[in-house]
Amino acid sequence: MIAANPLSKKSARPARDRQDRERADRERQARAAASHQEAAYDAELVRRFNGGDEAAFVEIMERYREKIFSVALALLRNRADAEEIAQDTFIRAHRGLSRFRGDSSLATWLHRIAVNLARNRYWYFFRRRRHATLSLDCALSEDSDATFADLVATDSPSPAREAATGEFSALVSVCMEKLDARHREILTLRNLLNHSYDEIAQALGINVGTVKSRIARARGNLRALLAEACPEFAPDAAPSDWFEPNRPSGRLEVASS
């Protein structure tokens, strides 16, 4: 039996690596060519529409309806709202397409409209606490298994406990409104809508590292605002320190004096 030559394996590896790089380059070039073709066709549709061809806009809607709906659904997690945002996006696009200068692709322009409309829709309902229940499964802290669901009133809650819990929720809402828009938005996506880091990165067009650092800064600012409003909520305390167990049930409840 002839032994395999290890040198032949070593010499074959660079050849495979080169082939892999060449294949990756061809795929990138193919994607770039396809993207260029798509952009050129979109530009032609825009030109036709601005020339009075309404059928061109119908084709734009058919090309991008599913993508726009997916963007809105990813942000709002509600199919009915996502459908409305998709419709509103194309209504806005129909009104504004004559002013579309082509600085970005048509797909990017439509995506931006959809994201802005979805954000506005979300904050409208957030201020009215439409999605307040979505955060009940969020952990109180990184090292605690307790969730905000544990703050739900026990079988026989005391009026004082109910009042304290309500006041705390109202305080958090007030402090959230005081955060700058970027921090308020990213905490909402993470803590209220329970989006993953990857989902947030995709929705905001930033990388995952930026998502994590922005969330950390936003949480720090929120704690500082809570401490400013109520000194007992020290910025360096874990959220679980703000609650105390209810002895009969073992649940966590807002600490009150």
CATH class of the largest domain: Mainly Alpha
Estimate the strand proportion.
Answer: under 5%
- The helix fraction, in percent, is 55-70%
Radius of gyration: 26 Å
Distance between the termini: 86 Å
User: Based on the structure, what is the oligomeric state of the protein chains?
Assistant: single chain
How many strands? 2
Q: Give the strand order of the largest sheet, numbering strands 1, 2, ... along the chain.
A: 1-2
Instruction: Please identify which CATH superfamily of the largest domain we are dealing with.
Output: Winged helix-like DNA-binding domain superfamily/Winged helix DNA-binding domain
- Low-confidence segments, given as residue ranges, are 129-135, 245-257
How does the major sheet shape up?
A: 2 strands, antiparallel
Number of DSSP helices?
8
CA-based shape: flat
Describe the structure.
This protein is an all-alpha fold. It folds into two domains: 37-127, Orthogonal Bundle (Rna Polymerase Sigma Factor, Chain: A); 132-254, Winged helix-like DNA-binding domain superfamily/Winged helix DNA-binding domain (Arc Repressor Mutant, subunit A), CATH 1.10.10. The protein contains eight helices and two strands. It has helices at residues 6-50, 54-76, 79-96, 106-127, 159-178, 181-192, 197-204, 208-229, and strands at 243-245, 252-254. It has a two-stranded antiparallel ribbon with strand order 1-2. Helix 2 crosses helix 4 (106-127), helix 6 (181-192) packs across helix 8 (208-229) and helix 7 crosses helix 8. It is flat and about 60 Å long.
